[in-house]
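Subject: Sanity check before I submit

Could someone independently write out the structure tokens for this chain? I want to compare against mine line by line before I put it in a report. The sequence has 186 residues.
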Amino acid sequence: MGWMTGMYSRREVIEDVTRGWDAKSEDGTVRMTTRCLRKFFSGNDMWSLWEHAYLDGSKPTERFIVLHMIRCWGRGDGRVWGYKDVSEDMGPNQTNCPLAFVNAATEPLNDYSREWREKVRAHNAVFRVGNRVRLWKNTGEIDQATIVSVRPFRLRTVEGGAPFRARKSLVAGLVEEPAVTAGGAS
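---
Independent answer below. Compare away.
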């Protein structure tokens, strides 16, 4: 699982990785098409939703997710762009895939894919307006905040105050709500 390099721009990489293809039988008839249905960027990581359609009806249509990690090496005219693609069944560790892609995909390809989709759902559940979240300790005086906007991502301190922009990577997770006892106290 290495890197595919040799392209001269980010655009060239994107065109290369989203180009569909047809699988033909020995007589030249197209028996399966593979198409990129959607793509989403998170920095230089591109998530894509793909579809295998079997034209002869031999298998049901499959939809699956691929992460393309896009990178650039070098400077000036010596820059070279490349990518590494990781299908959901091969092991992406990232969980910032759009939930819409997970919902649009067909049955998971294997157990790893199934577990990864659950991690993506859990990750996306954190980033909802109104959720109180824990922040990583290196963020200064603030250790908890409430999400007030997702696009753009904005938080408000628990004590109140004006909303502020933040990176989602500052969020360590949801704040555990204290358990309520039968008497109403925690």
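---
OP: Matches mine. For the report I'm noting this point. The chain is about 15% helix and 40% strand.
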